[in-house]
Structures are given as C-alpha cells and as structure tokens.
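Handout, section B. The chain below has 601 residues.
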Amino acid sequence: MTDLSDLPPVWPGRRALAWPGVPLFAALALWAYAVRHTDVSRLDDYGLVTALHPTFWAGLAVLTTGFWFTVRDPRRRGGWAAAYVLGLLVMERATQAVVYPTPLYAWAWKHEAVIDHLLTAGGLQTADQVGDMAVYDQWPGFFAAQAALVRLLGVDSTAMFMAWWPLASSLMLLLPLLLIYRTFTEDRRLIWTAVWLFYVANWVGQDYFSPQSVAYALHVGVLAVVLRRFGRSAVRRGQPRQAVWTVVITVLLVAIVISHQLTPGMLVVCLLALCLSRRYRDWVPVVTTVVIFLAWCLTAALPFLSAAMPDMIRSIGDVGANVETGYGATPTGTGAIATSWAARLLSGSVLLLAALGVLRQRVLRHRARPLLLIAAAPLPMFAASSYGSEMIFRVLLFMLPGAAFFAAAALLPKVRTLAADAAAREAGSRQAASPKGPLGVWLPLAALLGGTLAFVPAYSGKDRINYFPPQEVALVRQLFDQAPDGSLVVAANRNYPLAYDSYWSVDHYWFLDDARSHVDRIVRKPAATLASDMAGVERPARAYFLLTQGQLANSEMNGQLTKAQLDRVRKSVAASPRFRLVAQNSAGWLYVLKQSEGAER
C-alpha cells in the first residue's frame, strides 16, 4: 500500500473545514454567468474559444486552483475532491449543451438517423437493403439500446437528449477510473489528481453520442474488474467468486463486441499486456475476450469484414500511412492550426509528465506496473490500421487511464510505503515529507492549470465545423420532408445535420469524397459537371444540390476547397437554367435539377 507524505494544512482551525466550497461555488457562479452571456451565432475559426465570455476562463482558473489546494491537503475529505471533479465535468462537457441550441457533430446526427431507421424498419437489414450503412446493423448494440431508450422515455428521437451525451458518457467513466486507481493506492490525492488529468487530457472527442463512447466506458470497466478481481491475491480467495466475476466481464464484453469494431481489439492488447505481469498472469479474461470477439466477427459482422479485409491486411505494418492525414484532413487557417497544436501540446505534456512520474516515483514503478503496461499496450496498434486516419487519436485515448495516473504522480510529493513511514517514526527520525516552497506547490499548479485551460481549444476549437445553427437544421429538414423516394442529394461533404436522414430511401453523393481530378473539374465547370452527375435520376425522384454553412466550414478549415471556390460553385449553379432554387436562408441554399419542362409545371 502506498501513501503520499503529509503536507501541512494551508488554513489551520475550523474555518479550514468549509473553505473548499468557496472557490468551487465561485467557479460555478462564474460559469453560469459566462454561459448566459456567450453568443455562438457568429463563430470564427477558433470555435468556442473566442466566443466564450471571459468569466468562463476566470471560473476555470478558480476551479483548478481550488481543486489543487483542496486535494493536496491531507485533512480534506475525498468528497470535496469529488465535487471539484464534477464541477470540472460540468464546465468542460455541459457548456456546449447549454450554449448551442442544437446538438453538435455530424456523426451524432448520423447515429440519430441509424436509430430512427431501426425504429422505423423494426429490425436489422443487409447491404442489399441499405448499402454501406448496413455496417451499423452489423454492430447494433448501441443503436438498439438507444432505440429502446427512446421508446421508454416516450420522446420523438434521440435528438432530444444527445446534446448532453458528452457529460453522461464522461460520468460513466468515473466509477471504473476510481476503482482502477484505488487498486494501486489509497492516497486520495493521487487518485483524484489522476482522475482530473484523465478528463483534462481526454480532448479526443469520442465522448459524443456514439457507440465508441459507451464501448470505451465498458472497456475501462473490464480493466477495473480484471485489475481488482483477477490478480494473484484474488484468485487465491477461491474459484466460486472468480466465476462470478468471469460472468460479469463476459456481460461487459458482449456489450462491447456487438457495439464497436475497434474497442475489442484494444481490449485484447491491454489484457495481453497485463499477462506480462506475474501478478495478472490469468488467461481467462484474454481467452474470453478473444472467443466472444471472433464469434461475432465470424457471424454477424462477417459481411462487412469480408469486404474490408483486403484493405485491412494491406495497411498492417504501414505505420507512416496509418498515422498520416490525407486530402481533406489537414488543418487550414490560423484557428484550425492553433487548435491542432493545442491538442498536440496537451497530449504531449501529459505523456511527458507520465514519463517523469515513472522515473520519479520508484514505489509506483513497481506497485503500479500493470497500469504502465496498459498505457503502453495500445502503441502497436499504429502498425495495425489507419482506422480512417483516426488511429493516432484512438491510441492516445486508450493510453490515458495509465498515463494520467503516472502524470498525477509527477505533480505530487514522493510516494513512500507506509511501512517505511512507520519505521522512521519508531527510529524517532523526522524526514522532510515533500518539496516545500514555490517549486513544490506553484509549479505543479501551473502545470495543472495550463492543461485544464488548454483542454478548451483542443476540445472546442473546431466548433465552427461541428455546430449547426437552427436555420441549417430547418433547411435540411425541409429537403428530406419533400424528397421523394429514390431521390439524390448532392453536397460538397457530409458535414451537415440530418445528412443521413432517410438513407434507406434517398441516395447521397458528396463530391469532395471523389477523386481530386473530378473535384477540379467541378471547380472549373460547376453547373455543367454537377448537372451531368445528377442527370441519372428519374421521375418521380428528384436530384437536389445542397450547400450549407457546415459544409463551407469543414471544407475551408480542413484544406479541401476554399470559401471562394465553393462560392463560385454555388453562383454557377444559381445562374444555370438547369437548376431551380427551392429554399434558402442564412445557413445555406437548396437547388433542384430541372428534369423537363413538363416536370416543372
């Protein structure tokens, strides 16, 4: 068992019992004022960063400072640290839900469409029926659960609550994280600082309304059970209890495997890494995971894997291609580049702190070695696949539980065994417990504060891409309300709300996904080329051209086409006699291709 050396309380006396509440409530009051006075109607390339009222930043600084002086005081109860972490989650993950009138992320809207289809169709469908979207029916766990939740709550769709999903999915991680960290130390200062750093460094954005958000929480839950119940000491307590915990992780594993493609693979490598430690050389969790994973891949998921396997095999070992970004994935403009660098520096700083913690804390290096193995285990996945140019972000995400623990150890005093403390007391010696002065208090605080503030641009710096105003939602909804079955929707890219609405009856063509040569041809002769691409649609179906604010932001900030180029495309379509304007508002334009004079009367 380990503990951190005691530090003298900052405020002696009874007043010290209540003072942590002062900065906590002050920070939340500043946050509440900030969200009421934040205007998101005109986002720039820095996203929410420049839109936030200045009191938000003041509140975040007060919250972080209050947490640091609360958690480092050995006389404080753990409840205050927990309250500060919950306050952090509110400020980090609830701000967007409060200030934006519509849910963020085109992918979240896509998942809402999948759930709507599942409710409408009443069951899973094949590629012959829904094309590429059948992949979601082959991993239906999350979508089926959400469909059941919609029915249970009696709401119209998941759009009623999906804006709050980042907060909900982050809360799901809290208990398993606490269980993992309490496995290796009982010192609440180390535990809560590690939890704080985990949430601050988790800028990757996989906490939105998605299967991976739930699968990741279940992944951390499986690790918590294995670390606490499958070590050598737990096995010696008897097989009946071990069988119960095997059933528990089996249930969690089934939920993971039927919900997400990547998470089971990450879990397998983490469990294999644990087997390198003599303390956790138990093959039951690994074998159980592999068997369930393969069973699903060889049955329900086989249609998708059969088609994707050649590309997956070719990508194995190609580390350079697996981590590089391609056309349309390169940040462009000052805001996008600044956001990208904020995210890189935040992750790099946490990893450097983790390395420092490993070097500095000899006791933890031995006692918490399983966490070190878990942090390193995802690294080989760089060589396995690019995962749509996202593998580097997913590897960082799965490294975080272990990395945050050792990063917290770097910020806190030296860890010593309780036995060593007892021996020192018996010998009558008084050892310096920890570094005192500015280096022992203010330098770690500066690091913690810098990371906490850097989270905002890393997480919300691209909100110009991810936010869709009500006018854009209304325009797209108008499109799908009138589009007959068999219609075609042509757009620059898929970054707009409801992009997959009615995907079972309406086709889509995003021309920036096409070969660059064809994109260049569209830029040279927009109306003629697009009319030719859309000409195959037969009545009563129609061919629509949609250009919205979200598409413009995504194209411009990710290095696809500039605003001037897309404006030229739109103006060419508007001037062409082959297109007719159907609807427009401040967020976009909708045109329909004229089929014939008779069709227009």
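Note. The radius of gyration is 27 Å. Compare this with the example in section A.
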